[in-house]
Hints:
The complex is a heterodimer of chains A (421) and B (225).
Chain A: H1 2-6, H2 8-40, H3 46-64, H4 66-74, H5 86-110, H6 116-132, H7 139-172, H8 177-204, H9 214-241, H10 252-293, H11 306-334, H12 340-360, H13 366-379, E1 386-387, H14 389-420
Chain B: H1 5-8, H2 15-30, H3 32-40, H4 44-70, E1 76-77, H5 82-108, H6 115-139, H7 142-147, H8 152-186, H9 192-224
Helix pairs in contact in B: 2-4, 2-5, 2-6, 3-4, 3-6, 4-5, 5-9, 6-8, 6-9, 8-9
Amino acid sequence: MNIIVENANILMIMACCFGLFMAWGVGANDVANAMGTSVGSKAITIKQAIIIAMVFEFAGAYLAGGEVTATIRKGIIDPGMLGDQPELLVYGMMSALLAAGTWLLIASLLGWPVSTTHSIVGAIVGFAVVGISASAVNWGKVGTIVASWVVSPVLAGTLSYWLFKSVQKLILNTEDPFEKAKRYIPFYIFLVGFMISMVTMTKGLKHTGLKVGYGEALGLSLIGGLATMMLGYYLVQRASRNAVINESDRFANVEKIFAVLMIFTACSMAFAHGSNDVANAIGPLAAVVSIISNDGAILQKSAVPGWLLLLGGGGIVLGLATYGFKVIATIGRKITHLTPSRGFAAELGAATTVVIASGTGLPISTTHTLVGAVLGVGLARGISALNMRMIRTIFASWIITLPAGAGLAIIFFFMFKGMFS
Amino acid sequence: MNRSFFGELFGRSPVEPIQKHIGICHDCATQLQPFLKAVYANNWEEASKIQTDIVKLENEADDLQMSIRLHLPKSLFMPVPRTDLLDLLGTQDKIANRAKDIAGIMLGRQMAIPKPLQKPVSDYLKRSLAASEQARKVINELDELIETGFGGREIKLIDKLITKLNSLELETDEIEIKVRGELFLIEKDLDPVDVMFLYKVIEWIGDLADLAEKVGQRLQLLLAR
């Protein structure tokens, strides 16, 4: 107890630094994957992608990031076990942040496909098992989280498969795909607006103090969806005006309309990503902040302070602005064969899955979910070539990331323990 | 750190290179027209120049084919079977090979085409080239096919193009019989060895259309799955 009170300031500063480091890492690497599909399909420019990412990552983190943050903060470890030794939790969460951040840095330097989420969960479980005891870990919850890592890519793949199939049936495979695109794409835009509004209303507004009932949320989301649709309709009309008729490239015009849709799905992707991945940086930090500000008491019930989500959102934007844009450009150059009609299906499938997970408080990997969604479109015969070796590599990196995150967290844990006691 | 694994997920699409490949093969075969003109004019210097161009284009097609093959590893997941795509590519390449054979043997033996045969052979070649042009058109639908996700409408359109290709090939068969008949009428007045090779060249010009038709059939196979 004394240790925490004595070192409150230094612990607080260190934890905030590590949290910011982690948020920076999320912004520098992960956001690029989320936005790369939009840039690659040339629906938006890199500049636009960065602006969209900044606004919607931040909105997602602030409005819908609370649930997952709560899971990372107090869902994985049972804080009741540590009533008399809160300093262990503080060291542990700090080491988890530092470990995950370090591992991400190493992995990205080597070009390995690691996930921020997997690193942080591995790190937290690692320090808890070794530093505290295996029974301190809420294994049931960890089991659910790991299961969601398998389910989320599959779900995203299924969604994007059917989204693309519906586009084939309604638009691409018709007499006049251009007219059909103009007619149906506003409905897809409605879906995007509705989904984001719904999650924000039901799950996001808690810490801002607004309470909305389920019925109200549904109504407001419908309005939100319709408003988005109107905007989309206007943009579609504008885009279709400068269409050129060219027989050898019949689908170029159709893709132009899909590009409008993709602006919206890019927003939803950034929103979804912010809502889920901000927790990777802010969850552990929230645990530390809560203990320190309560002078060492571990409180079971307390909402995540809004300023922490702001800090996380800010860190992500910082990472994006200082480094992420380069990675977006790299990815964008590589996936030029993902046209807007496919890119949108992948993004909407992934974003929906991630937002659902965020609403239920499950930390999942946005990138892996997006990979699953892309495969879904591929299975619908929509992409001319997918590199399946990458799937194997991603799977292998899973198996390495968990023990690597855990191992590093254990080392840092004993380091902090030695430093402060 | 710029090596992003998400970007690596997308393999290089073979569609565009395959379309470029048939373009080169067709261009290579079209060179036979000026080549024949030079032969008729007995201008062997010009003919040899054009033959060099044909060989150059054929090599270009070979190189492109090799590079496409190398970039289609087994780990690539595509909407069409990899083996069918490679077969298609191989058939396309044979058009260029055949064009090279024709130019090569005619230049090597300094084969003069007898006057009465010149016009029929020119027409015959033109028909064969029309078939290879049609094959190029069919292959150019490949990207639209993937764009629509193998939609029924696009398949119908390709079927129509392939039907046209088949009828073009049939026409060249008929012309081939006629040209051979005309050669038969005059063959006794010609050197027997020359006549042998003339028959050979006539057959090879027909091969161009045959191969073009086969390209269409390969594409149909691709759709059938």
